[in-house]
Specification:
heterotrimer, A mainly alpha (about 220), B mainly alpha (about 650), C alpha+beta (about 300), A: mainly alpha, Four Helix Bundle (Hemerythrin (Met), subunit A), elongated, C: about 300 residues, Immunoglobulin-like, five-stranded mixed β-sheet, about 20% strand
Chain lengths: ~220, ~650, ~300
């Protein structure tokens, strides 16, 4: 293969370029994470808008007849497990930053377990409703939130799980003595950028969980 | 000694840093019929549809309301959603996401010299751009054929070419297909193809998200076209409830289709926004960013942030029709206004999604064909961001007569009229750049000038619509219809075709035929105006939109519009002929920079190498120094030895 | 400035004179010739006001359109490249961004826009909503003490009208008295329609379960076309009917006669109300059964039976 033909097909980088593009990747994780939160915010805000819009218009007096509520115990449990998952993600990330990779992994896997339980409870709750989906504005909004919550939990689950899986493979790929928290290898650096965004997203999810727990069960 | 060997390099081919994708990697990297491509995607769609439909019948088939109504929307939705999933799976979009769960890293994609790469899931932004061009043209011409059908029906006020049900299905399908197409017509093809080249990046920030956006977009096409097999839907592109709740199974195609297209729009906007923010070459400060990139940034922001509301609205609609919730049912505690609010909260930013990229294209072309710097560059960039921001605060001007928040009408009148100020900046830029210029009337320039002519009419009539008292007369009439065709078609679609003529040589290495191009332009320009200008008058004289019967005295005007529309349709035949002629039948090799542009995209070799830039360019000036005979060098492309002692700025 | 033969022509002076003449003529011609005939005519106050508004906007818009067109035409004729191939670069002062021009542009467009906003708002408030639908609680209403209430009911695919001050009878023809303030109450029985009484300059969405009020005052007698202006299903295109504005005396006579003639029918109608729940299940059941308590899905929608 001639050099000319080859240069059209294979990217080559000087060390400076490799470093520059690595920076770009890491920055993309940061920017992308924030933009993703913006995207989800607009989606979740649409649901919150729906809640308040139907509540205030109260068509036919059917916003919430007799103050029906989705099973509160299950609801509180779902919220608790989601919140614990977020807390673990944040605390784990703190430990990670100070070098405690193992702590983060334990926290991460526990968070994944908590999310699985929350998701299971959310689906179980849908089978235990004391109302029919179309019976009131509240009932409808609850269904939408429950489905959204399952989706949101899947996103969190996926992100955390892929990071954990990645960290396991990284351990054997990194030079002896380096951990993913302190290695200067490009993969470890990207991993840290990814993890930072993931933790940020968990914090956002915690806020959403609090908001909708209050909307659906408390007020 | 070749250039490659002159500088120290590290191959970023899969090394110890990358492990392959395992079984999925083998699937992706296999070549030939037994790999994943468009064909397997189609098979995936069909199998997914069948599976989803069957599942839906199992889940909901037993409910008496399903049995009594004779339609099972759960099965229809399940079929469409799993069909889309099967499409993505078949295309290979899910290989990496699944492999990632096992902690695997993406293998670097190798360059594929075969033509089959255009039918594959690929992270190469130039291939994705071309894939997008062919898809949006398919979208556009499908919608165009439906428009021909509409104009045929409207030839006569009383005798009908179609039954009312068929006609309303055609109208709805036309509107929806065109709206979906227009969201991506520039951002998809030109955004993906050009932005990395213009900002000196060797790839986009998230290449797999970029590919995902394309394959989702095409899946959306299949879903919305499936409405025809369900008997269509009667709501127009606005999908107003309660008609939405009342409609037949075709409505599911609309709701799922918009949700799916919405996913694609968000993915495309997300990727491009992040790319522009993080992947600019060293030295490419915000003040040196090409204006087209500014317009894509503003559009990408709207795509990312406004579309979730549409997806949410569609999601609630899907729940209404499957889980029997009551979001849009007034009698059950819902509100039909809720849809109108959610829809238009997305719908108006959407309108600017369909205007800004067009502005970007013409502003990019003007300096090239006038040999002057872009006038008021900063104002133009600020105007685009201003439009993007304001567009979130105008949605209720679609609802002036609906009875929603009547006391808010002056506010929305104000915001709507305010948005005409930043929109007007594009005219400041255009007219200022034309001042004492040396205008060359190449075909792209003709399209650019046509945009200024058309959009002026569209924009000024927009001010009429924003005025509440006048709106009482013209709301929902052909006046509105003419207005938005003047802005979207007269603006965006003209810019899109200008863009094709302008960048075609770069994208394909071939020149478009000039004579055919001129015929195309003049036919399109003249008959566009003859089609849509009479519609202002038709609307003022009292013809509502989406009707198949109208007053006898409006027949002459309607016939003028119809006959012109057929010629307008014919102009696209000329375009297709030119396109096919110039690519396949009689290709004429294009010079590397046929328009003598200073833009960075034209400084790359032709054809553009797989990785765009051999060395990351260092930008040294803005790309509009047309006024100086010895313009400062735009960028140091680093090819050759003059870069050996160059210091590359590294880091944030 | 001494050598006149090579001096640049005064472009802006030329364009300005041309613009002044063309825009002046266009405005004058439009306002005098077309203006009085601009839809929707002058049959009611809202129609007349909206016509005036439209004319004012067009009188402002025409000079703007003409200014841009003249400038572009002038540029295309005067500033085209004469050289084959790529034109020579344009340098010097004209190539620089002129801050004054930019500022003037922004200032003038902002002024026009703010002016239009004030004009539109004043017209809207003075016009008591300008004939547009104002929702159930209109914020702006006319001064008239006793407006005639007329209810407009949209359903797939026809309009009917009820006159509460005449016993609530229902007709398919919109008959209105001249020189009277009318208070339209627009509602729907099924999907969203839009009541567009073209010559009256009235437009209001007909939403199910919602009352949408619009005002106008009749000024002239004549016939009226009513069209549905919101897509409402397959026969949307055929959803129109006609009405008349007649003298108050004739209206009184018509209304009392119709009231008397339709007594039997009126009895069968639901009592006059601002909104109606369509009756799906029987005499007064409505769509949402209040008689099932506690609410049970299976009672209403049928129990789930085993999948066959």
């Amino acid at each position: 293969m001639t050099a000319t033909a080859r240069r059209h097909e294979v990217m080559t980088s000087t060390p400076e370029e490799a470093e520059y593009e690595l920076r770009q990747s890491i920055n993309s994780y940061w920017t992308g994470g924030r933009l993703l939160v913006g995207m989800f915010t607009f989606f979740v805000a649409s649901l919150a808008f729906t809640y308040f819009y139907l509540r205030s218009s109260n068509s036919g007096g059917l916003w919430r007849p007799a103050h029906v509520t989705a099973p509160t115990g299950t609801g509180a449990a779902i919220f608790a497990f989601s919140a614990v998952a977020a807390l673990l993600a944040v605390v784990g990330y703190r430990r990670f930053q100070s070098g405690g990779v193992q702590d983060w992994k334990v926290a991460g896997w526990t968070a994944v377990m908590a999310l699985v339980i929350a998701m299971g409870l959310q689906i179980y709750q849908l089978t235990q409703l004391p109302f029919y989906p179309g019976s009131s504005g509240y009932a409808s909004t609850f269904i939408a939130w429950a489905v959204t919550n399952v989706f949101l939990l899947i996103c969190l689950l996926y992100w955390m799980e892929t990071l954990l899986a990645q960290s396991m493979r990284l351990r054997s790929a990194l030079p002896v003595g380096e951990t993913v928290a302190d290695s200067a290898s490009p993969r470890a650096q990207k991993f840290r950028g990814n993890l930072e965004s993931c933790t940020f997203f968990f914090q956002f999810a915690a806020i959403v969980a609090v908001l909708f727990w209050a909307l659906i069960y408390l007020i | 000694m070749s250039v490659i060997d002159a500088v120290p390099v590290t191959d970023s081919e899969p090394t110890e840093d990358y492990v392959n994708l395992g079984v999925f990697g083998r699937l992706t990297h296999r070549r030939g019929w037994l790999s994943q491509h468009l064909g397997t995607a189609v098979i995936g769609f069909v199998l997914g549809y069948l599976l989803g439909h069957w599942l839906g019948n199992v889940v909901a088939g037993g409910y008496s309301y399903v049995q009594n109504s004779g339609q099972n929307n759960v099965a229809d939705t399940g079929g469409l959603l799993l069909g889309v999933l099967g499409w993505l799976f078949g295309a290979g979009a899910l290989n990496y996401p699944i492999a990632k769960m096992m902690g695997r890293e993406p293998a670097e994609e190798r360059f594929d010299p075969s033509w089959t790469r255009y039918f594959r899931y690929t992270a190469d932004h130039k291939v994705v751009g071309l894939q997008y061009i062919f898809s949006v043209l398919t979208f556009l011409f499908t919608g165009g054929l439906l428009a021909m059908a509409i104009r045929t029906e409207l030839l006569s006020p009383t005798s009908h070419a179609f039954g009312p049900g068929t006609y309303i299905a055609i109208v709805s399908e036309h509107g929806t297909v065109m709206m979906m197409m227009a969201t991506s017509i520039v951002v998809g093809p030109f955004g993906n193809w050009l932005v990395p080249l213009m900002i000196g990046a060797r790839r986009t920030a998230f290449p797999r998200v970029e590919a995902f956006s394309f394959w989702t977009f095409t899946a959306g096409y299949l879903v919305i076209m499936s409405a025809l097999f369900y008997g269509g839907f009667p709501t127009g592109w606005t999908g107003y409830a309660p008609l939405q709740t009342q409609a037949g199974a075709g409505m599911m195609s609309y709701l799922v289709g918009f949700a799916v297209i919405g996913m694609g729009m968000m993915a495309a906007g997300f990727n491009l926004a992040v790319t522009i923010v993080t992947c600019r070459a060293p030295g490419l400060t915000w003040g040196r960013l090409p204006i087209f990139v500014w317009s894509v940034l503003a559009t990408a922001a709207l795509l990312t942030l406004a579309t979730p509301t549409l997806v949410a609205g569609g999601f609630l609609g899907i729940l209404d029709r499957t889980a029997q919730t009551a979001f849009y049912v007034n009698e059950h505690g819902g509100s039909s206004y809720l849809w109108q609010n959610l829809f238009w909260f997305f719908g108006h930013p959407e309108v600017y999604i369909m205007a800004l990229p067009g502005f970007g294209i013409v502003a990019e072309m003007l300096p090239v064909f006038t040999r002057k710097p872009l006038f008021a560059y900063k104002v133009a960039a600020a105007g685009m961001l201003g439009v993007a921001l304001l567009s979130f605060f105008v949605w209720q001007h679609h609802l002036f007569q609906s009875g929603i928040n009547p006391d808010m009408r002056p506010l929305f009148m104000l915001t709507t009229e305010l948005i005409s100020i930043p929109t007007g900046f594009i005219y400041l830029v255009g007219l200022g750049t034309l001042y004492k210029a040396k205008i060359r009337f190449e075909i792209p320039m003709l399209f650019a000038l046509a945009l200024f002519f058309n959009f002026l009419i569209g924009g000024v009539t927009g001010v009429f619509l924003s005025d509440v008292p006048v709106n009482v007369q013209v709301h929902g009439s052909f006046f509105v219809l003419a207005h938005f065709h003047y802005t979207i078609m007269g603006g965006l679609v003209f810019a899109f075709f200008g863009g094709i003529y302008y960048w075609f040589p770069k994208m394909t290495g071939k020149m478009m035929n000039k004579t055919l191009g001129k015929i195309h332009f003049w036919m399109m320009f003249i008959f566009f105006n003859l089609t849509f200008f009479p519609m202002f008058i038709i609307g003022l004289l009292g013809q509502p939109r989406r009707v198949f019967e109208y007053a006898q005295n409006l027949q002459t005007l309607n016939d003028i519009a119809s006959v012109s529309a057929f010629f307008l349709g014919a102009s696209f035949v000329v375009f297709v002929a030119n396109f096919v002629w110039s690519i396949f039948i009689n290709p004429v090799a294009a010079p590397p920079n046929p328009w003598d542009s200073l833009g960075l995209e034209w400084q790359t070799p032709s054809p553009v190498p797989y990785y765009n830039f051999e060395r990351i360019p260092v930008i040294m000036a803005d790309p509009y120094h047309y006024s100086e005979p010895n313009a400062p060098q735009l960028a140091d492309l680093g090819v050759g030895s003059d870069r050996t002692d160059e210091k590359v700025e590294v880091g944030k | 400035m001494t050598d006149t033969s090579t001096r640049e022509p005064r472009h802006f002076a030329r364009m300005f004179v041309l613009w002044l003449v063309v825009a002046g003529v266009a405005d004058a011609l439009f306002y005098t010739l077309a203006g009085p005939h601009v839809p929707p005519g002058t049959m009611t106050t809202s129609a007349k006001d909206n016509q005036f508004d439209f004319n004012v906007l067009l009188v402002i818009a025409l000079p703007v359109l003409i200014a841009v067109w003249i400038y572009m035409g002038y540029a295309i004729v005067m500033w085209r490249s004469t050289r084959k191939g790529v034109a020579e670069p344009v340098g010097g002062a004209v190539a620089r961004g002129n801050k004054g021009v930019q500022f003037a542009w922004i200032a003038s467009t902002s002024t026009i826009v703010m002016g239009l906003f004030v004009f539109g708002t004043v017209a809207l408030i003075n016009g008591a909503g300008s004939g547009g639908g104002e929702g159930p609680n209109p914020v702006w209403s006319p001064n008239s003490k006793a407006p005639l209430q007329v209810q407009v009911i949209g359903q797939q695919w026809k309009f009917t009208y009820r006159y509460p001050s005449f016993g609530g009878f229902e007709t398919t023809q919109l008959i209105l008295p001249n020189n009277t303030t009318i208070e339209f109450h627009v509602t729907s029985l099924d999907v969203t329609h839009d009541f567009w009484a073209y010559q009256l300059g009235v437009k209001a969405d007909a939403n199910p379960q919602l009352d949408n009020v619009a005002y106008t005052t009749t000024r002239e007698t004549g016939s009226v076309t009513v069209r549905c202006d919101e897509l409402c299903g397959i026969w949307h295109g055929a959803m129109y009917n006609y009405g008349r504005v007649i003298s108050p005396a004739a209206f009184e006579a018509w209304a009392t006669a119709t009231q008397r003639a339709s007594v039997a029918n009126t009895k069968l109608l639901p009592p006059y109300a601002l909104t109606y729940v369509p009756d799906a299940n029987g005499a007064d059941g409505g769509l949402y059964p209040t008689n099932v308590d506690p609410y049970s899905a299976s009672e209403v929608y049928g129990a789930k039976v085993a999948a066959s």
